[in-house]
Amino acid sequence: MPYNYMIHGLVISLPFSCQGIAPAPPDAKVDVIAIETDVPRHLPAPKVTGQAFDADNGAFLLRGGLRSARFLVENGTTIKFCKNRDYEEGLFLHYLFYQVVAAVLRQRNMLALHASSACTDEKAVIVTGESGAGKSTTISQLVAMGWHLQADDLCALRLGQTGTLEVLEGTNEVCLCEDALEYLPYSTRHLPRREWHRNKVAISYSAKQQAKPVSRIIYLKRSENTSKIEVERISGQKKLELLCSSLYGPILPAEIQAAQTILLQTLAAIDMISISRPEGIWSMKDVLKAITHD
Hints:
This protein is an alpha+beta fold. About 25% of the residues lie in helices and about 35% in strands. It contains 7 helices and 21 strands. The strands form 3 sheets. A 9-stranded mixed beta sheet has the order 3-1-2-4-9-8-7-6-5, with helices on one face. Strands 10, 11, 12, 13, 14, 15, 19, 20 and 21 form a 9-stranded mixed beta sheet that branches. Strands 16-18-17 form a 3-stranded antiparallel beta sheet. A hairpin with a 2-residue loop joins strand 1 (about 5) and strand 2 (about 10-15). It is globular and about 55 Å long. The relative contact order is 0.14.
């Protein structure tokens, strides 16, 4: 029996039930089908290869390790998977909802960013940046202020019917490091831990299942040379470089070309600021002020 879910604006049909993403409407048309079947260990002639993946035009093979599965994404419409010997459901779903779904998005000509997003009823902000800079922490703080979670760790961008750039809804979970939890206005004592995700604590929120127009992209980074946050408005070549560094890869030239219209619209129409926050100092109040300041 198939189970249909919504993620990043797509209806994905899975051969099992799961939590973490919203059920699709009963009459929704399926965009992506996941099938449990045999999966090769390598692509025959990949254009890009790494220790854990092979990528070609219309094909992405991920080797998830003994505790997960091998995945093969084809043409943005099919996900084939073969569970490995020591398969663990949580790690399997982590690979599926992030690296595998990111490949689906790229093959469907969307722009996939390694980023998190929160929204009000009217607009969304996207937070990307350096690893460990506090992307998920920032989003969780916005949610604590009354914003809604839109996506964590993987954001999908598309052009709406009016040509406005939109970010689509992702999973309903944010994973946070231990030192960020004490600043949340509620108890996190009994929340589950994601051992495969640097032992972060998982917090579930009720995400709104609709695309939101993007008002601002934040590039977050850490600095050892300052005692306060530094805010810089980004434009020109630097904006392109920071945006490209935030793409959820591996990216093939054909995928960049297919998503060129979205990329150009992002560069032309979306405000982007860089925020350097001091290392070892909790500066989230100032970070949030810079993000929400019009």
